[in-house]
Design brief:
By secondary structure, the protein is an alpha/beta fold. It has 8 helices and 12 strands. The longest helix is centred in the last third of the chain and has 18 residues.
């Protein structure tokens, strides 16, 4: 057992390999009076086959952390590692290859090409890279996200939830070592959002995927194995085996602590 800054005990993490790690990771924007510290020496690990939610108030550094760890943004200090590969210092070519081969990313916007079918959108990154998809894995992914009967449909023939499922499948299809999701249910109604969150959880439990999701929603966070809380660019707390009520309660404690500090 470990004890959080709020005195709450949480279960020890499972002993599995680390899929991604941030070590004293910092990100600073601007200089002088316009200087903003988005990440302040953050150290955190994301383990294989685990679903982590990242929560915190607006401007706490949630999206910045995932963007830096996914190689979508540069860092100002410290290091970000995917598997055994440190992102800091990689050339643009090697960073592009790393993102293509080892990282999946799901954005709040679906980012689907309207002229392509669902299947063509799913395999597009591999097609661009000149790689043939692993058919057995692709079939498993498509089945997991429930798209088997919709593969020939274009985005305008799919619901919002189905479009986001295509985006999830696209991120999974290349067998990434880790998948980052930035508010993946932000543009969805509650039913479609629950479907996508269920698919993300199933990808961890059934496919052994590693998922790191930014969210502001305690219900969405309850689908994860653990929740990491950020404030002012720092990790301030962690909760394992979360429920929506437990997450909400922890956020209230966090808010109260912030007001009295």
């Amino acid at each position: 057992m470990t004890t959080t800054p709020f005195g709450v005990q949480t279960a020890a993490p499972r002993t599995t390999a680390v899929a991604a790690r941030a070590t004293e990771l910092s990100k600073v924007y601007g200089q002088g009076e316009t200087r903003v510290v988005a990440l302040d020496a953050v150290s955190v690990e994301f383990r294989q086959a685990e679903f982590t939610a990242i929560m915190g108030p607006s401007g706490s550094g949630k999206s910045t952390l995932t963007h830096c760890m996914a190689g979508l943004d540069s860092v100002s200090g410290g290091s970000a590692t995917i598997g055994d590969t440190e992102l800091t210092g990689l050339t643009d070519k090697k960073l592009t290859r790393l993102r293509r081969d080892k990282i999946g990313f799901i954005f709040q916007a679906f980012n689907l090409l309207p002229t392509l079918t669902a299947l063509e959108n799913i395999t597009l990154p591999m097609d661009i890279a000149g790689r043939k998809p692993d058919k057995q894995w692709l079939d498993m992914v498509v089945d997991t996200v429930g798209l088997s009967g919709r593969l020939k449909h274009r985005p305008n023939q799919l619901s919002g939830g189905q479009q986001q499922r295509v985006a999830v499948a696209r991120a999974l299809a290349g067998k990434p070592e880790i998948m980052f999701a930035d508010e993946p249910t932000g543009n969805l109604d509650s039913r479609s959002g629950a479907e996508v969150l269920g698919f993300l959880r199933n990808s961890v439990r059934e496919l052994g995927q590693t998922v790191v999701m930014v969210t502001h929603d305690p219900v969405a966070a309850s689908y994860a194995d653990r929740v990491v809380f950020l404030a002012d660019g720092r990790i301030v707390d962690e909760l394992r085996r979360p429920t929506a009520d437990a997450v909400l309660d922890r956020m209230k404690r966090f808010d109260a602590k912030g007001r009295t500090s």
